[in-house]
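Design job #97: recover the sequence.
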């Protein structure tokens, strides 16, 4: 029984020596790992905005008809819609800029609100056909609205002004946002009596879509002027960024 204890006693130093050698061998590698100092940073938010005149208008328009039967309501709707499409073609709106946005057939009972009135009573049927039209000549918007109304359109919703290609505006707004962040950081660093170092992080906050709404919504019976007044105004694109600077 004594001999095993001696064996254990003899092996223990060897194990310790071996462990010391392993730790000693790893020490140079551990010493090469740089120690990261406690970070000092300044984080600011920047915003950039670009405003331009719109070059595209979007209008949702169409016709709603009522009749005692689905067939009659559809026939009336089809005839009016054909006149509207013919007017759009006359105004040189290409087919690719006209897209059906909604078509529905519903039953109608007394007491329900209606856009078209033909004096009928009891159950009737309502047929609605709507299209979204892109108007690329902004000065033509009033003429298009006047034309489709004269052709029988009794539904005009959501005339919006925008730009055909927002990418250039977004890039410009992004650049302004970064510049704004740099100016804010410089001002804060001066107040805090520190010096700015390199940029450590940039986080995009995203941008707003360039949409500016018009104010025209027509239903049957609405009194329109000789020429529908429209004010395109300007569309605005905004962008935000968050920038973190090292400070000394």
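Job complete. Output follows.
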């Amino acid at each position: 029984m004594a001999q095993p204890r001696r064996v254990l006693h003899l092996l223990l130093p060897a194990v310790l020596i071996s462990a010391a050698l392993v730790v000693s061998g790893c020490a140079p590698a551990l010493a090469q790992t740089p120690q990261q100092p406690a970070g000092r940073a300044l984080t600011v938010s920047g915003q950039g905005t670009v405003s331009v005149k719109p070059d595209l208008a979007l209008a949702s328009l169409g016709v709603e008809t009522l009749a005692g039967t689905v067939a009659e309501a559809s026939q009336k709707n089809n005839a009016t819609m054909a006149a509207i499409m013919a007017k759009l073609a006359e105004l040189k709106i290409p087919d690719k800029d006209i897209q059906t946005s909604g078509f529905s057939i519903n039953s109608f009972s007394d007491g329900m609100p209606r856009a078209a009135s033909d004096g009928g009573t009891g159950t009737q049927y309502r047929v609605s056909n709507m299209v979204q039209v892109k108007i690329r000549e902004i000065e033509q918007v009033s003429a298009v609205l006047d034309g489709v109304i004269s052709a029988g359109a009794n539904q005009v919703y959501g005339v919006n002004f925008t730009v055909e290609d927002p990418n250039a505006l977004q890039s410009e707004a992004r650049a302004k946002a970064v510049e704004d962040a740099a100016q804010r950081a410089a001002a804060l660093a001066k107040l805090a009596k520190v010096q700015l170092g390199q940029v450590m992080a940039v986080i995009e906050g995203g941008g707003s879509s360039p949409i500016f709404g018009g104010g025209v919504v027509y239903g049957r019976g609405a009194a329109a002027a000789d020429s529908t007044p429209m004010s395109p105004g300007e569309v605005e694109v905004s962008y935000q960024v968050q920038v973190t600077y090292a400070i000394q």
